[in-house]
Design goal:
It is built from 6 helices and no strands.
Length: 144
């Protein structure tokens, strides 16, 4: 934050030093270095940081992966019986003979599994976002 606040003064110092270098290099006949310092002075002239957004919490939020591990364990635990239990009890052969069995049952289970995984993932994402925002005391960057 200090760098962003002091940047305008830093840019002004760079311009002043580059202009002094231009005068010096022109006096000794080094046109290449004089052109280089003129370009530096032009690029740094009038520079400043007008807006600053504090985003440190998002670095920690993106690198935080404990919730991803919890989501993985919960999804594995919640989905392991969706197809396995039918195979163990041999209900899969019975379901094939019913009118709504077979592909309809498999499709319904896949849709339910997708909704379960999506819901668990969304819940943990939301809880992490709220927790990080509260812990860091910053909601500013969420709207940008």
């Amino acid at each position: 934050m200090r760098y962003a606040y002091d940047y305008k003064g830093y840019a002004h110092q760079v311009v002043a030093a580059a202009q002094r270098n231009v005068v010096f290099y022109e006096s000794v006949g080094n046109d290449g270095e004089a052109r280089k310092n003129k370009a530096i002075a032009e690029r740094f002239q009038g520079r400043s940081i007008s807006t600053f957004t504090y985003t440190e919490m998002y670095k920690y939020y993106v690198q935080y992966d404990f919730s991803a591990l919890l989501v993985l364990f919960i999804c594995i635990f919640g989905l392991m019986s969706v197809f396995v239990l039918e195979k163990e009890t041999e209900m899969d052969t019975l379901l094939l003979t019913t009118t709504s069995g077979g592909f309809r049952t498999i499709g319904a289970k896949l849709i339910a599994s997708f909704l379960f995984v999506s819901g668990i993932s969304w819940w943990f994402w939301f809880a992490d976002f709220i927790a990080f925002s509260v812990l860091f005391g910053s909601w500013d960057s969420a709207s940008k």
